[in-house]
Amino acid sequence: MSFKKKVYDILVAKQPPIRRRYVRCKEHGKSVGARFVYLFRLNFCFYVLNDRTLSRFDKPTKPYCKGAESALSYRESPEKLAEKLAEFDAVSFDIFDTLIYRPFARPVDLFNLAGTEAVLLNFSELRRVCERKARDKRFAENGTYEVTFDDIYRYMEEYAGKSFAAAKEKELAAELSLCFANPYMKRVWNILREKGTRLVVTSDMYLGSEFLGKLLGKNGFDGFERVFVSNEHGASKYHGGLYETVKKYLKCDNIAHVGDNTHSDIEMSRKYGLTPFCCPNPNTVGNAYRPTEMSRIVGSAYGGLVNAKFHSGLEKYPMLYEYGYAYSGIFTLGYCRFIHDIAEKRGADRVLFLARDGDLLKRVYDTLYPESDTVYFLWSRMAATKLCLEDDTADFIRRFVYHKCGGSFTGRGMLAQMELSELIDKCPCRDEVITDKNYEQLARYIIETRGKAAELYKPQYDGARRYFSEMLDGCKRALTVDIGWAGSGGAAIAKLAEKWGFDCEIIGVVGCANDSSAEQPDSSEALLQSGKMYAYCYSQRHNRDIFNSHDAAQGHNIYFEMLLGSESASLRGFREDGSPIFGGSEKDNAQTVSLIHAGALDFIADYTARFADYPYMLDISGSDAYTPFGAAVRAGGKYFRAVLGECSFNMGVGTEESPINKQI
After folding, report:
1. How far apart are CA 220 and CA 148, in angstroms?
2. Is 223 exposed, middle or buried (CB count within 10 Å of its CB: 0-12, 13-18, 19+)?
3. Could you tell me if 600 and 309 are in contact, meaning their C-beta atoms sit under 8 angstroms apart?
4. Distance between terminal CA atoms of the chain?
5. Please, are residues 364 and 598 in contact by the beta-carbon 8 Å criterion?
6. CA 181 – CA 100 distance, rounded (Å)
7. Rounded to the nearest 5 degrees, what angle is found at the Cα of 379, between the Cα atoms of 375 and 384?
8. Integer Cα distance of 117 and 121 in angstroms
9. Which ranges of 480-589 would DSSP assign to H, the alpha helix?
10. Main-chain phi, psi angles of 195, to 5 degrees
11. How do beta strands 571-574 and 100-101 pair?
């Protein structure tokens, strides 16, 4: 064994945490000196500081908490920039990350989709390695690192095999399908074109000018005179020679250049006599706030779209809109796909989206799967608790009495909220504030008068039964869809449907199950195990890291439920004829909900449009859907207070709504 190999084994290969980070550093093209310094730091932390996980090198991201993230990149309007650029004789534009975006936080992840279409393992990594080796080979032969697309794939075939060369057309197809216009620069471009400004495109790129021209035209960038590409001229922006070529062609001195790279587009264009204008790369800014724990492909797609939305510089969005776009959108999209998969797996012929969390979900689901039979099912914890009094008295007492103990409620007040005022006069603790000391007294009274209470609720029973008959008509198996947590909404519907003789199997689907800190963390585990209920993001059975970190006591349930908030009023029960009885209006939260929904719907529209040719990208795991929210949780409530602090939320059955900041 060589001395070099021995050193490598000791300093790199021996410890997996060190090896993973060192290889990642090498992949990023760091110099030998930089890699050596990094390797020294890794070993020092591992062996001397005893940081066996090297956690200090994994800096978890957190959301921007000081206001709207989009404000970080908001700048002068496209019209003002166009006015400045129009003063020049000609304007040169960079392509990627300036005129054109790829829908990935790491643009090289486009290679992953190309490799998938060609059914190749590890294609993205080999594609990057082969490009680097092709450049090294070209430099050794001709003194330039500029290579063509064909050069790369010739080396791919030589180095990796013929099957990898087959991905060539898949990669070109992916570029055409996935790339989209930077909306800010699209407006700048259109104004300059209308003014008759001479436009050229200048890029350090392996793709040819003909293909890039086609890509630009597909995204609405037409009217340019020429595309200058480094590989066709043997000169680059990075070293400056390509700017000389541009100047010779334009035959004028007053030229502006617009691009994102500090060295190639700004410093070198200035050095060669052009006037630079910086167009910041959205990923450079936004990746600092995107979670790093998501799966490679979906995580990069999610991050790329959010970065492009928030950091193109075109708009400064309200924080609530950003909450919808960055957090609600991916959860709603992934959850709808999950619901559809369960419906197909179990042969459900109808999907019942429970009010009020089902409002946004149904709108998105109907758009994605228009052939499905869906209904918006009016339901609430209060209605379910009253209707199941005789069958589940313990839950009735827990929700109406136990959850309000220690507050300002008297026995009289609690019975009034139960809509059982007729029982107040004989209640032994009617005028006492209910605490843990006299809680059992009121609980015992409810048990003793359960029959009378059921009689008082009978009109509501009859009305609910009529409503069920309408909603379940002709249905043999239905899914009930809710956000979480114990799945009591779906369980109550299943219980009542069976009690009332409806020949319809009810299967519950929730976004999240109870977490480990919940008062009753095991309440739905039997239903999950038996297949009578399914959880998307986590449960005890999967994604246990989320199950253990999510904490209702810290307000996480409230923040999560706001992802799917609704403007509709809460259901209190049913009249005898089956018509609903609603509580107070949701006018205080109307604007909040509207902005969150707008953001979520825009994300879903963007995501489905970008990946229309890659439908498998809609298969978003529960872990990926939750992770952006989990990253926000790391901010310790600071982010949620900033964006949701004045939103109202009902903490329990029958309680009044109050701002989140007063509840948490």
Report:
1. 25
2. middle
3. no
4. 62
5. no
6. 5
7. 140
8. 11
9. 488-499, 525-530, 544-549, 556-561
10. -80, -10
11. unpaired
Q: Which residue has the tokens 């809509």?
A: 419
Question: DSSP strand E in 424-582: where?
Answer: 477-482, 505-510, 533-535, 571-574, 580-582
DSSP SS3 for 353: strand
Let me know: does 629 contact 621? Beta carbons within 8 Å: no
pLDDT tens profile 143-194: 888 999 999 999 888 888 887 777 899 999 999 999 999 999 999 999 999 9
- In this structure, are strands 275-278 and 374-377 parallel, antiparallel, or unpaired? unpaired
Helical segments of 143-167, H only: 149-159, 162-165
Cα–Cα distance, 156 to 164 (Å, whole number)? 6
Alpha-carbon distance 435 to 423, whole Å? 20
Name the DSSP letter for residue 552.
Answer: G
Give the span between the Cα atoms of 520 and 241, in whole angstroms. Answer: 69
Output DSSP code: residue 420.
-
Q: Which helix (H) or strand (E) holds 92?
A: strand 90-93
Q: 95: exposed, middle or buried (C-beta count within 10 Å: 0-12, 13-18, 19+)? A: buried
Using CA atoms, how far apart are residues 166 and 189, in angstroms rounded to an integer?
Answer: 36
Token pair 């799966």 is at which residue?
Answer: 295
Token digits for 652? 């329990």
Single-letter amino acid, residue 294: M
What DSSP assignment string belongs to 598-633? HHHHHHHHHHHHHTTT-GGGG---HHHHHHHHHHHH
Distance of CA 608 to the CA centre of its chain: 13
Write out pLDDT tens, residues 350-403: 999 999 889 999 999 999 999 999 999 999 888 999 999 888 898 888 888 888
Distance CA 370, CA 352 (A): 15
Alpha-carbon gap, residue 509 to 78, rounded angstroms: 46
What Rg, from alpha-carbon coordinates, does the chain have?
30
- φ, ψ for residue 572 (rounded to 5)? -100, -25
Q: Which two tokens stand for residue 388?
A: 């199941």
Strands (E), 450-512: 477-482, 505-510
Decide: 460 and 468 in contact? Cβ < 8 Å. Answer: no
Residue given tokens 């099957």 in the structure block: 163
Return the DSSP state at 410: B
Helix (H, G, I), strand (E, B), or coil: what is residue 406? coil
Check: CB of residue 209 under 8 Å from CB of residue 229. yes
Give CA–CA dist 465/452, Å, rounded: 20
Token pair in block for residue 408: 């300002």
Q: pLDDT tens across 505-561, in order?
A: 999 999 999 998 887 888 889 999 999 999 999 999 999 999 999 998 888 888 888
* Residue pointed to by tokens 């005789």: 390
In the block, residue with structure tokens 């930077």: 182
Q: Kind of pairing, strands 180-181 and 100-101?
A: antiparallel
Residue type, 248: K
Measured distance CA(243)–CA(241) in Å, rounded: 5
Asked if 281 and 262 touch (Cβ cutoff 8 Å), the reply is no
